[in-house]
Amino acid sequence: MAKDFRELVVWEQAMALAERVYELTKELPGDERYGLVAQMRRAAVSVPSCIAEGNARASIPDYLRFVSMASGSLAELRTQTMLVARMSLASPRSTDSCLDQIARVDQLLKRLQSALRKTSQERAAPHSSRFPFPVSRP
Q1: 5-48, pLDDT tens digit by residue?
Q2: 59: number of Cβ within 10 Å
Q3: What is the second-level CATH architecture of the domain 5-118?
Q4: Which region ranges are annotated with the description Disordered (predicted)?
Q5: Which of 49, 52, 83, 105 could form a disulfide with 5 if both were Cys (CB 3.0 to 4.6 A apart)?
Q6: Could you report the per-residue pLDDT of 40-56, keeping only the tens digit for each?
């Protein structure tokens, strides 16, 4: 497991997504500055932030909770990007590119969750050599 969040591909890709969202939201009309622009940017920044905060936590359950929050923010961002596309508020090229990056980050988050769950289960599993002698009599 990575000791520093900056070593994680998912964090790097989430940072790239946040940059892409900032570029996309520059295309939105000015009257959306406090609406979709603010919401999309907040959700986009939340994804790598939650990954970093979870990585800094002392336990795997805490880490999983923050990865789950990152997934929630990503779903929120996907919905907002789809709305922008449906309303033709930005170019299809920009929204498609953003949605593609969202899909990449989503897959990486799922892999991180799976790895964390596996590690958590391995740590919680009782060792077969727990008792060096038979527990029951023959």
Answers
A1: 999 999 999 999 999 999 999 999 999 989 999 999 999 999 99
A2: 9
A3: Up-down Bundle (1.20)
A4: 117-138
A5: 52
A6: 999 999 999 999 999 99
